[in-house]
Every structure is written in C-alpha cells, then in structure tokens.
Amino acid sequence: MKAIILGILASFFFAFTFVLNRAMNLAGGSWVWSAVLRYEFMVGPLLLIVLLRGNLKNLLLDLLRRPWLWLGWSTVGFGLFYAPLCFAADYGPAWLVASMWQITIVAGSLLAPFFFEVVSSDNGLQKVRSRIPVKGLWISLIVLIGVAVIQCQEIQHLALREILLGVLPVIAAAFAYPLGNRKMMEVCGERLDTYQRVLGMTLASLPFWLILSIYGYMSVGLPSHQQVIQSLIVALSSGVIATVLFFTATDLSRGDLHKLAAVEATQSGEIIFSLLGEIFVLKGNYPSIISIIGIGLVILGMTLHSFNSGIRRKDESVSL
C-alpha cells in the first residue's frame, strides 16, 4: 500500500507538468525550452540531496564505469519521454495530453517480456523472462476506457492535425518512460538508491538536452523570464519531487510485475489533477457528466489495481 500512496502523490506533482507546459504554450513559450529547462534545473537540487547523503562518489564511479548504458537508457527514459510530452502540449490542451499519457499503464505491462525477474525453483534462484501480467492488464484497460470516455466529447472539437501531433508523441513517450526507468533499475540494482539513480539519469541525459537547447536557440532564441520561472516550478515539482516519489514506489515494487503495474497505474491520477488545474489555473471549462463518469472509471481502475496488489501480497505471505 505504501508504494500505491507514493504513486498517487507522484501523480499529483506530475500533473504540474501538463498544466504549466500548456500555460507556457498559451503564453507563447517554445516547447523546446519547456523541456530543456526542466532537466537543467533538476541538476542542482538533486546534486545537493545526493551530496548531503554522502552518496555522490559511488554514483560518479558507476557513471564512469558504464557510461554508455547510463547515456543510452537515460536518454530514452528522460529525453524521449519528456521532449515529446512538451511538443504535444503545443497541439492539445492539458487534459488531452494527460489522458493520452495513461497509455503508459498498458505500455509498462506490454514491456514485461523485455525484462527478467528472479524466481525460486528446485534449483534455487533463477532468472526467467517476465510474462505480461494479464490480470493487471485487464484492470488497466478499465482505466483506459475511462480515459476514452473523458475524451469522447472534447476530441470532436479538435482538428486532425491537433489530434495527431498531440497524441502520437505522447504514445512514444508512454513507452519510453517505463522502458528507460526499468532498464536503469536493472543497471543500478541494489548498488544505488533512488536519489542516486534520478541524479545519474539526469546527468546522463544532459547531452540530449544540450543538443535540443542548441536547436531551440537557433530556432526561437532564448526563453522568456516567465517561461524560466514556470520551468523552475515544473523542475522542482515534477522533476524532483514527483520523480523521486515515483521511482521510490517502483523500487518498492522491484521484482514483482503485478505490483509494478499497480504503481504505474496510479499515474492515471494525473488526469484528475490536470483537469482540476485546467479549471482553476487555466480557467478552462468544468468537466461534463460524461467526463465525470470517465473519471470514476479511472478511479475504479486505480482501486482495483491496489486491491489486486494487496490480495497477491496476502496470498504470498500465506504460502510462505
């Protein structure tokens, strides 16, 4: 249950991303700087946290020992996750981007065969290829049905170009985030804690952000003061607080694909918090009755995931 609660808290702080990115877009800010500035601002606070915990040396040694693994999977997990999300904010409202992002719930389950888990057998502990958690996947589909219901009315008012450019990048990001996160969990193992892993991935993704910032400077110039301030808020809320909370929750679920799927399902809370942000921050419209029904389905899916995870833990403790 602790991992589920941390996941829901993470979804609250992650919602700042969708609302403020849309706000920056409406104010004329470039999606490039929205993406770049978040990760540049994340370095300082994370570096301070790891330094105060006395864990910086071990992280730097690991980065030097396996630079290509860090560079590759951090670029996937952070770069190919966040840049498409910011790009999509230029073409769709916060609720659309946040709701489409929930595909990551199913994406995380579908990626299971790309990973191995340790199981107990007659020959001792063995590594076996993970299987898609079918039961958890069916519960995740309830969440996605809720997302579809929320969108069914609003999406009729969007042009095809807005739908494609606001949806396809989010689908790519939805697969990149859990893939990069899980691969780095494998790479780090028990050697590094959550703070070290988040800082390491942030540092290793900096070359990607440097290239993107050069493109941003050449295409639109420097960001405005307002965009810098809003990006700082996103970096602290979503980049530091939410990321650490979510990665802690996934660390608590390490080796259990069902629990991991449940934790990733909590991120559907982002759509609820984004809707509230759209209303109270961006002065958007209140959700319709149909949208409220969709929100109810999302909450139902999250609850079933938590219940299913709790039942499995109880069964496992009895079998022991």
From TrEMBL:
**What top-level branch of life does the organism fall under?**
Bacteria
Please give the start and end residues of each transmembrane region: 31-56, 68-89, 95-116, 136-152, 158-177, 198-217, 229-249, 288-307
Q: Which InterPro entries match?
A: EmrE (IPR032713)
Q: Which Pfam families match?
A: EmrE
Work out whether the entry's keyword set contains Transmembrane. yes
Keywords per UniProt: Membrane, Transmembrane, Transmembrane helix
Name used for this protein in its record? Multidrug resistance efflux transporter
Q: Give the species this sequence originates from.
A: Desulfosporosinus acididurans
